[in-house]
Amino acid sequence: MTTTSLAIDQKDLIPFSTYKKSRDEYIRKMIAYKNARRVRLDSSISLLFENHQTVFFQIQELVYSEDLTDSEEIKEYIDIYSTMIPDANEFSATLFIEIDDQLLLEKFLAKMKGIEHTLFMKVGDETLQAVFEEVHDDREFTTSVHYVKIPLTENAKSYLKVTAPENAKVSILLDHESLHSEVRLSVDTVSSLLSDLTE
Fold first, then answer.
1. Could you tell me the pTM of the whole model?
2. Judging by beta carbons within 10 Å of its beta carbon (0-12, 13-18, 19+), is residue 72 exposed, middle or buried?
3. Cα angle at 13 between 10 and 28, to 5 degrees?
4. Please, what is the end-to-end C-alpha distance for the chain in angstroms?
5. Which of 4, 40, 126, 138 is the most buried (most CB within 10 A)?
6. What is the band of 8 on the pLDDT scale with cuts at 50, 70, 90?
């Protein structure tokens, strides 16, 4: 995945002392913000739509929690995570497979092998296939975290921009042989994604 022009600059980060004082408030606001961008496909699978704001928070929290001060090390993390910021012609997301029991998780990851080929976004009458950063066809299991891009056609973008969020037919489809799920996006989620297209 390529770095976008919206990539975060190190000078954008909140100074350590300032962030430390207001961290609880930053976390509270980000949890609320992410809730509108999270789609649960199953009790064990969720999709979080990423953008500049979610990625910025992730980097900021990482710098704080790991007490990073080395400029080159921070830049390396910024370069890695900035690739998750979508450009004007795509959505970006992180797919999580979350099961607390390690044995059950391993069995589920084996069961969900090939998930990288079976995730779609339906926008109006179009079905758009998600593109995974990594495909694991060479082994007998998938991974618990996937970074995903959803390329948008001009028709899909136009549909989202001219259709009121409450009327928009937008859903996420997982069409795996072991698990079929289709979830229509809420008005809040569609509204949040629309803001990504207009930034």
1. 0.91
2. exposed
3. 150
4. 20
5. 4
6. confident
